[in-house]
Design brief:
Helix content is 38%, strand content 20%. The protein has 495 residues and is an alpha/beta fold. The strands form six sheets. It has a seven-stranded mixed β-sheet, sandwiched between helices. The chain is globular and about 75 Å long. The N and C termini lie far apart (73 Å). The structure holds nicotinamide-adenine-dinucleotide (NAD).
């Protein structure tokens, strides 16, 4: 089927998915899912609220308690998760097109990155779960202490719109693999693929009630989930502002475990002895413009050593035309639409603030393709930025690169760490001592050396400081969705 034929045949179902069935919100209320590609209405989505969350949580609790999933042998859950991953790939074109229409990213990346990463994540945790052993503690011989993992129970998941399938899979895959039941609240800006994922999980053999999806707005559906007295754990990805509220809601309700993956303003430091300047430029530009700049780990603060600033900027500007926004449904588009008009206005507002505060606009700075009715912003580069400017301090979440200058390693680290965030950072240098010293000094969950693109499901992802609490991905993520139990068994030695 061609993309055009698939496009014509796509039918969206925006109803919630609770206890294995598509249901409307109890109030009957809906909201429009509007495509940022061209403003078309894709479908109407159930506007879930507290009553719907209550039903979803009750379904998840019943499923957990009767052990229809939690009681299965890990090897059996593995087989189901593997089938789920296979189904995500089998429906990859449909899911990719849905993601593009729903949130604007180029369809080539939705397919090659988002679908593949989500499927890989589901498969990886499925495959891991029957290889994790408990422990026996080295106690005295008068007792045996077994240390085992148990699923926490009902896991609430709240995710943003920038990588809807990937962000959801980073949480639901380890949670489901460990035997939990899940209630997922996708972003109101991109709810459609999450709903399809739940259907495909059930088709793969995840029992009804184990994976529920309640679309809706943050205050109406997200807050009741985070505050729910019968949710054991809340796993959140989104802004630092809302993440702080999630911890408060968790603490003020039942002290549920709260894990948060939040914002970033990641510094990317290029020293004059950078071993491959062309690669550093291509990576710096490509990483900030990928996904329209809507990436939590985007290296949005570029720190360039003063002596190479001019040559660096000249090379960077030469690459900008490659990222001109275009229709994301076209196969060769590299920069698509921002998620909606609100986000576009926010990004354009930051650009105006950058200009007003004295940063030098070198490229872009304007809305693009306004005639389409979609939400497009030109790839934008500011030079002459200082770390006290708003565009250096706040997360813009759009295609805007702020370039700062530094003189030596000490100043670079001082500027890099002068932020409330600590998600990721980059260092480019040929000197192994500079690389190690700077990497150690950077307060960030991930530091990239002489690249900014490596990623793998095997490594933890998360941040220091106000970039959140806990880590997604890798075996470490399983800790978030399991309790550790110690069982002491007395031994009266007969020998
Ligand atoms: P957001 O915080 O506005 O919303 C995230 C989710 O929280 C959405 O589903 C939203 O409906 C929900 N929500 C909003 N208010 C709520 C409330 N009061 N109670 C409960 N839920 C509520 O963030 P966003 O704009 O959707 O996403 C962008 C943010 O996500 C950026 O800050 C980005 O850095 C961050 N992010 C972080 C990571 C990471 O791994 N660290 C990954 C992706 C995105």
């Amino acid at each position: 089927m061609t993309t055009e034929q698939l496009l014509q045949s796509l039918r969206f179902d925006g109803r919630a998915f609770i206890n294995g069935q598509r249901v409307t919100a109890k109030t009957g209320q809906v909201f429009d899912s509007i495509s940022p590609v061209d403003g078309r209405i894709l479908t109407q989505v159930s506007r879930c609220a507290e009553a719907d969350v209550d039903v979803a949580v009750a379904s998840a609790r019943a499923a957990f308690d009767d052990k229809r999933w939690s009681g299965l042998a890990p090897a059996v859950r593995k087989r189901v998760m593997t089938r789920f991953a296979d189904l995500l790939l089998a429906h990859g074109d449909e899911l990719a097109l849905t993601e593009t229409l729903d949130m604007g990213k180029p369809v080539q990346y939705a397919r090659a990155v988002d679908v593949n990463a989500a499927a890989n994540c589901v498969r990886w945790y499925g495959e891991a779960i029957d290889k994790l052993y408990g422990e026996i503690a080295p106690t005295a011989s008068t007792a045996l202490a077994l240390i085992t993992r148990e699923p926490v129970g009902v896991v609430g998941v709240i995710v943003p719109w920038n990588y809807p399938m990937i962000m959801a899979s980073w949480k639901i895959a380890p949670a489901l693999a460990a035997g939990n039941s899940v209630v997922l609240k996708p972003s109101e800006k991109s709810p459609l693929t999450a709903l399809r994922m739940a259907e495909l999980a059930m088709e793969a053999g995840v029992p009804a009630g184990v994976f529920n999806v309640v679309p809706g707005f943050g205050a109406e559906a997200g807050a009741p989930l985070a505050s729910h007295m019968d949710v054991d754990c809340i796993a959140f990805t989104g802004s630092t502002h809302v993440g702080k509220q999630i911890h408060v809601m968790a603490g003020q309700s039942n002290l549920k475990r709260a894990w948060t993956e939040l914002g970033g303003k990641s510094p990317n430091i290029v020293f004059a002895d950078c071993p491959d300047l062309d690669r550093a430029v291509a990576s710096a530009v490509g990483s900030i413009f990928f996904n329209q700049g809507e990436s939590c780990n985007a290296p949005s603060r570029l720190l360039v050593q003063g002596s190479i600033m001019d040559v660096f900027l000249e090379k960077a500007l030469a690459l900008v035309p490659h990222y001109a926004p275009a229709n994301p449904l076209l196969q060769d588009t590299v920069m698509g639409a921002l998620v909606d008009h609100t986000q576009m206005a926010t990004v354009l507002g930051y650009i105006n603030t950058g200009k007003a505060q004295g940063a030098k606009l070198l490229a872009g700075g304007e809305q693009a393709l306004s005639e389409t009715g979609g939400c497009y912003v030109q790839p934008t580069i500011f030079a002459g930025v200082t770390n006290d400017m708003t565009i250096a301090r706040e997360e813009i979440f759009g295609p805007v690169l702020s370039v700062l200058s530094f003189e030596d390693a000490a100043q670079a680290v001082q500027i890099a760490n002068q932020t409330v965030y600590g998600l990721q950072a980059g260092v480019w240098t040929a000197d192994i001592n500079t690389a190690h010293s700077v990497a150690r000094a950077l307060r960030a969950g991930t530091v990239h050396v002489n690249q900014y693109d490596e990623d793998d499901i095997t490594v933890p992802f998360g941040g220091y400081k106000q970039s959140g609490v806990g880590r997604d991905k890798s075996l470490h993520a399983i800790d978030k969705y399991t309790e550790t139990k110690t069982t002491w068994i007395r031994i009266d030695n007969v020998l």
